[in-house]
Fold this sequence. Notes:
Elements: E1 6-13, E2 16-21, E3 25-30, H1 32-41, E4 47-51, E5 66-67, H2 70-79, H3 84-94, E6 99-102, H4 108-117, E7 121-124, H5 126-130, H6 133-142, E8 147-155, E9 161-165, E10 170-171, H7 176-186, E11 190-195, H8 207-214, E12 221-224, H9 230-239, E13 244-247, H10 258-267
Parallel strand pairs: 1-4, 1-13, 3-5, 4-6, 6-7, 7-8, 8-11, 11-12, 12-13
Antiparallel strand pairs: 1-2, 2-3, 8-9, 9-10
Helix pairs in contact: 3-4, 9-10
Amino acid sequence: MLKTRLIPVLLLKNGILVRSRSFSFHQMMGNHIEQVKRFSQWKADEIVYLDISRDDNYGLENNRNVIGSSSSKSEVVKKSHGNFIEIISDLSRICRVPLSVGGKIKTLEDIKKRLKAGADKVVINSAAIDNPEFIKKAAREFGSQCIVVSIDVKKTSVGKWNIFKHFGKNLTDLDLNRWIETVQVLGAGEILIQSIDRDGTSRGYDLDLLKLVSKNISVPCIILGGAGSFDDFVKAHAVNNEVSLAAANIFHFTEQSVLNAKKHMFKHKINVRV
């Protein structure tokens, strides 16, 4: 029987590790290097690392909307390297679990640089929507096993899920089920489903969304958005015992460690690596 993967997600904005809510509110959460060390020690099954910066400049002037003192942000930015590739290289040296990275991936060369720097997989989103053939080209060049397509969704008032791109800013006209089918045909080796509505709310995963996507996904699937307690992992597993469970904000605090979450899941008869 396959073991259920538990995957911490880290968000980097202009060189600063942040937590988010609904893809918009961002609060500084400390040093990304120390977090990766901690997740490795906690026996995370994998780490997803997403750069949500709008440009390549990690200067302090780009962090006005990040909640935190100016002195703290300045210190973190000083310790950060000049670009995301250098950060990936540093992280890969200390990370003892598979590392998936995403953010600002538009070309095959962008993928090559990230894999060469030490990433095991890349996460693509907007580039796949703008040019679906990019998925096929990436899978052919690097192998489907390292191509993760991320899909950001938001529920409408009539119970339909809309797909967004560019960090949840731009609405697309894509149908969720059809897009899931398309990315699999084009060669995606894994799909990451993110709920914009549940992001940072601690209200639990959107189980209706999980039920819907579970019907159409034949490749490994990761669900993200809303986990606020260890019971949320148990509830999601009850809906789909093959889905991998990702979470961000809950794991920023030591008392809510990945290891403690796995112990809780094990008590509920869920097959996890401990």
